[in-house]
Amino acid sequence: MERPLPDEPPDAAARLQVRDVTKQFGGVRAVDGVSFEIGDGQVVGLIGANGAGKTTLLHLLYGRHRADAGTVVLAGRDVTRLPPRAHARLGMGLVFQNTSVFLGLSVEENLLLGAMPKQGRGRPADRLSAVEQMLEVVDLVDQRYVPAASLAHGQQQWLEIGMALLAGPDLLLLDEPTSGMTRAESRRTAELVRRLQTDHPRRAVVVVEHNLEFIRMISDRVMVMHRGCLIADGSIAEVQADPAVQDSYLGRHA
Amino acid sequence: MPAVDPTTGSGRSAIRKRIADLPRSSRRRAIELALLALLVVVPLVSADAFFVDRLGRYLLWAALAVSLDLIWGFGGILSFGHAAFFGGAGYVVGLLTTTQAGVLPLGVWPAIALAVVASAALAAIVAGAAFRGRTPLRGVEFALVTLAVAFLFEQYARSSRVLGGQNGILLQGQLSVAGWSVHRGRGFYALALVVLVVSYLLCAAFLRARSGRVLQAVRENEERVETLGYDAGRVRFQVYVLSGAIAGAAGAVFYVHDQIVSPGAVGVGASTLVLLWVVLGGRGTLLGPVVATVLLQHLTATLSGTFLDTWLFAVGTLLIVAILLLPGGLLGWVGRGQMR
Amino acid sequence: MWGKGTSRQLVAAVLGLGLLGTGCGSGGADAPGAADGASEDGPIVIGVIADLTGPFAVYGTNVSRNVQLAAEEINAAGGVDGRQLEVIVEDIQTDVAATVDKSRKLVQSDGVDVVIGPIGSDANDAALQTVVTEGETILMYPQVYEGGKCDPLFFHTGATPAQQVPGLIERLQAEYGPKALLFGADYVWPRRSFEVAKPVIEAGGGEVVGEVYLPLVADDYSELISAVRESQPDYIFSLYPAVYGAAVKALDDAGLLDDDLGMGTIFLGEESLPTLGDLGTGTYTTLPFFTDAQGDGVDDFVARYRAAYGDDAVPGGGETLGAYAAVHLYAQAVAAAGTTESTAVAAALAGQSFEGPTGTVTMTDSHHLQQPIQTARVNEDGVYEFVEVFDAVEPGESCQP
């Protein structure tokens, strides 16, 4: 499928460079020749209908699946064939849609896992204070010793964001962070996501979402996927005006 | 410190709330100390040296159970062959201390040390192949591999001339520390208690450390742990080697005390018993298996004297009742406790 | 699932204390720790280490029963110098670690004067350590075994390869022919027995056409089957104690069992014959005892045994006379020595003779038993039938006093 090429030449210093990645399952191309770049400090939304390939693309980005073709370059390193832990060590953070905090562990233990430096350096006292600070940020101070299983869904999502943040990621991927949230919770989440980036200007954030309202609250750039292809990549206004997008995606969702 | 306000309510209900709000670590600490106190006091008040000696054996078995709970209760790694480390260490010590012309080729303690190393090495080989290879084994696959290894080990022990075949090996040498005999009675008990306590502390320390925390998360959601940047295979490897070393240490001392090791010491039957101790005591509690091992082994030893024909049924019935009433194990309510 | 919180803890505590309670009760804080036995006036205590559970349960039970039968007889006749015999039986579960534990208990905690049992030679090795070396107490081993164990306080009342093998080989050769195939489990007892067998076979003009060793518990008998096919033996001499029935069935399935192929064993007591079913018919054995054995006291002995343990009770094979005679020999030795002190009794045991059901048995200076050995053949009813007897067979062991 055709999609408009970006005007700028590839940025050698881009945090994430995705080139022509393709993934096939059986006879179906879940991701078909997708290319884009995310630079430092950018907040980008990725939208598309169910089955458009967003989830598969995400899996390719963090290394859960290996692309059949194409490359994924993170922080200048080719991570296409590397396992997820390599991605994490290169500064990629993840917040999943289906909450994947560790239900049997306490809130504090969950956060500690995010805080422990990957290379084994750093002092326990530093880690603990970082955790304590994060408890404030995600508003879970009272639930410090509580098993994550007893948190409300929204709290679990926040815990997960907290965990991802403690690792200090340069690129944060959020997969449908507002699913199951009320409007009020979504708004708070949008604030949090904005802060994530403004507190760390170099940090890039990619948010995969259904909820265009949410994207509007947080980002200036949005990518649209449809049937495995990236059919639009630009500002919200540009994308909304794009006839291809209107035909395939927005039209159905209007 | 708990971020809970304890000043609501008054009198009894306040105290109850206070206790309930204590972080689990305090509750756990209290139970640990109570158990330790019990284990220290019993040999002091008992006049029967044989009973104390027997208790020492149970404590070494308990250390084996703790080592299995470490990998199974906390790491989710099921092993049907854990007795192989315990009995295997016995064989190693036996081989190293076999007399020729009445002279020990190797002293008892060096032999025990080498046996621990051998156990750790065996664990490293198994775990390396299983957890760090190109295609790491999943839970059920690994369990079956351990089953096969244990089975083959026993078969080999039964037919090997080197290992004494059916009859096994007689161990020479006596346990002593700085001139004090710790080979029988209270001395041996003290040694066994030290082995158990050190094993327990090692496990607790591991679980508190980075690898231990990662391991507990791996048990729940391995994929998520990997996306946080950790290597699940590596922590599995580490915990398995630690577990093998502990089991080997306990086994080496056990068989020097028993002075004979035979094929029944390794193999599937022996390993299954260890699983039973852990299940009965409570997986993931570290303390439960200690209690369950001591109780079950003592029960087995004494009931068979009292109910000559029916003791097997009696023990079996008690086991079933216990597991039905307390599916989480005897000490399941202690829980993991916070390993802080 | 039951209630939560405190009620669960309560149940756990009650259960735990209950278990510990039953245990501690017999932990015996008041039991004597001394190893040289009870006082000179009290009962003479016999400790029995018997496999009451596990694969050897059938044999261990026989040991236990025969010891108790003998003890009751002696007590009924007035005891030993007026002292009664007391028997303490412990189950060693066909497990070496349990043997270590129970034998130590008997010696250290119960202070027994003598230990009788076990069945397996691995358990015997363990008991030699705990009872003889550590406990300085007499151990009497009542089962057939490979021989070769010597100690001043160790006495064997079973049968040795030198006793069982020659008569069996002679009979098999006479009935079936000179070509012998030796089939055994891969450990010391079969190997040593075959070492005894080979010169006997050759001296009698026979020939060993095959020698097959399999693991004690095997699931694949193809090695045995192909050996039988290739070498065409006249008879198979087997020492495969754990799962002999499976091996025989495998031969039968391969169509190799027929009336021309002789089968001989030395371990198959009559209590194990039912496991063979029809396949056992025609099997020869040489044992110290079986129900149809010849001897003035046999019928009476069997009757008394069945009166005590039921009409279907089978007195047993290798270990029966061994356990029964051990008690009588020991009692006689204590009477002769005038004490239960171990070295004195041991000295008195050597040379003791006892009139058993099958005739005179004598404890030799080598601490093994000279005794009648009888050949039997399994008849169509699946029971051992007497064939011939060899009187006063020497054990052929070379232990120096």
Largest interface: B-C, 49 and 54 residues
Radius of gyration of CA atoms of chain B, rounded to a whole number:
21 Å
The radius of gyration computed from the alpha-carbon positions of chain A, rounded to a whole number of angstroms, is 18 Å
Q: What's the SSE pattern of chain B?
A: HHHHHHEEEHHHHEHHH
Overview of the structural elements:
The complex is a heterotrimer of chains A (254), B (340) and C (401). Chain A is α/β, with parallel strands linked by helices and 254 residues long. Chain A has nine helices and ten strands. The longest helix of chain A is centred in the C-terminal third of the chain and has 17 residues, at 183-199. Chain A starts with 15 loop residues before the first strand and ends with a helix. Helix content of chain B is 69%, strand content 2%. In chain B, helix 2 (24-45) runs antiparallel to helix 7. The radius of gyration of chain B is 21 Å and the shape is globular. Mean pLDDT of chain B is 86; it is low at 1-10. Chain C has eleven helices and 14 strands. Residues 1-7 and 21-38 of chain C have low confidence and may be disordered. In chain C, helix 2 (57-76) packs parallel to helix 10 and helix 5 (161-176) crosses helix 6 (188-203). In chain C, the strands form two sheets. In chain C, strands 6, 7, 8, 9, 10, 11, 12, 13 and 14 form a nine-stranded mixed beta sheet that branches. Chain C has a five-stranded parallel beta sheet with strand order 2-1-3-4-5, with helices on both faces. In chain C, helix 8 links the parallel strand 8 and strand 9. At the B-C interface, helix 3, helix 6, strand 4, helix 12 and helix 13 of B face helix 1, strand 2, helix 3 and helix 4 of C.
